[in-house]
């Protein structure tokens, strides 16, 4: 395991074990178990029975292989199995014929709300312990009252990678990943976040930003300038391609833009000096303003994440569950560090 995974799996498994003893539940279903880091600790250190459910067969294979090695080294067999499948309310019932916890470490997008709903739907699932991530992959319900705001938002964001609407996540389906609580749906039907703000919720400042803030601001500025270059000279690419963080050279804009065009397989007649001139003429004087905007933008990250977490807690509390939220990881090691737990009275 990487130091990050060791930190996460060790802390979360200890927390699950403490709840296991408190509620006298000694079986866990690990949803989105990956290669089984959390599952194996629950077996070897938590003395729990574990069913690890993972959609990717490669991860299942690695988890089984790793489990055999651990058993041989520690002489600890335990009750453990890995199941390759996508979990649903119908197929999970096979594994919940006794009191069970539903656990998940960094369940992506809608998988977190799915876990919360499975907990409420199955009487034998006595608790859910979940650390979510990838909020930008959530599906988001928008009420009819929000239509005007949504239309304006979609015009502004236009399209993204491969020509998809940047908010294909917005839906009229009430059974979506956000919001879950009736409080938001009924009292604030005009409210919505959208994919861009949800992406911002996982874009908080990192320690590396403090070490070299000038590089951080330069990256942000170059990406914005390059997007403007595409919009002016290559408008089709501006709508359909996202370069993201795949460029590594930031010594000057000319080198950055050349590398970006190579990544895009974009044939251009611009020389490096011409690209640098484009930047110097249009964007050099905006660097301070860009840095201020980056700081203001990043300061909203935690607020948006907390809103999503609180919506989940409200949803569980509305159904009568005993609910708690706490930070469980060091944020510098694991930015998505909030665990939400719920238990049946």
UniProtKB/TrEMBL annotation:
Residues annotated as domain Methyltransferase: 4-140
InterPro entries: Methyltranfer_dom, METTL25, SAM-dependent_MTases_sf
UniProt superkingdom: Eukaryota
UniProt xrefs under Pfam families: Methyltransf_32
PANTHER family according to UniProt: CGI-41 METHYLTRANSFERASE, METHYLTRANSFERASE DOMAIN-CONTAINING PROTEIN
UniProt protein name: Methyltransferase domain-containing protein
Organism: Stentor coeruleus
Organism phylogeny: Eukaryota, Sar, Alveolata, Ciliophora, Postciliodesmatophora
């Amino acid at each position: 395991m990487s130091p990050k995974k060791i930190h996460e799996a060790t802390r979360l498994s200890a927390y699950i074990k403490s709840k296991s003893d408190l509620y006298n539940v000694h079986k866990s279903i690990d949803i989105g178990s990956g290669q089984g880091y959390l599952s194996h600790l629950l077996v070897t250190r938590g003395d729990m029975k574990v069913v690890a459910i993972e959609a990717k067969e490669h991860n299942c294979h690695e988890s089984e292989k790793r489990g055999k090695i651990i058993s041989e080294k520690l002489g600890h067999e335990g009750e453990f199995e890995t199941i390759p499948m996508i979990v649903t309310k119908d197929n999970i019932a096979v594994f919940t014929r006794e009191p069970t916890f539903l656990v998940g470490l960094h369940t992506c997008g809608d998988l977190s709300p799915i876990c919360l709903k499975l907990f409420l739907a199955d009487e034998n699932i006595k608790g859910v312990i979940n650390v979510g991530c990838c909020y930008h992959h959530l599906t988001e319900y928008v009420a009819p009252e929000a239509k005007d705001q949504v239309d304006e938002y979609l015009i502004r964001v236009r399209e993204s990678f491969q020509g998809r609407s940047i908010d294909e996540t917005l839906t009229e389906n009430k059974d979506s990943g956000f919001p879950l609580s009736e409080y938001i749906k009924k009292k604030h039907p005009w409210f919505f976040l959208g994919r861009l703000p949800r992406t911002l919720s996982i874009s908080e400042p990192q320690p590396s930003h403090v070490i070299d803030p000038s590089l951080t601001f330069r990256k942000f500025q170059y990406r914005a300038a390059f997007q403007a270059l595409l919009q002016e000279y290559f408008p089709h690419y501006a709508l359909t391609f996202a370069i993201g963080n795949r460029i590594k050279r930031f010594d000057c804009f000319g080198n950055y833009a050349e590398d970006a065009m190579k990544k895009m397989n974009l044939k251009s007649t611009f020389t490096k000096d011409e690209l640098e001139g484009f930047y110097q003429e249009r964007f050099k004087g905006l660097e301070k303003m860009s840095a201020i905007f980056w700081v203001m933008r990043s300061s909203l990250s935690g607020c948006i994440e907390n809103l999503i977490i609180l919506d989940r807690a409200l949803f569980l509390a509305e159904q009568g569950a005993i609910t708690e939220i706490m930070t469980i990881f060091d944020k510098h090691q694991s930015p998505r560090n909030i665990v939400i737990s719920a238990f049946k009275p």
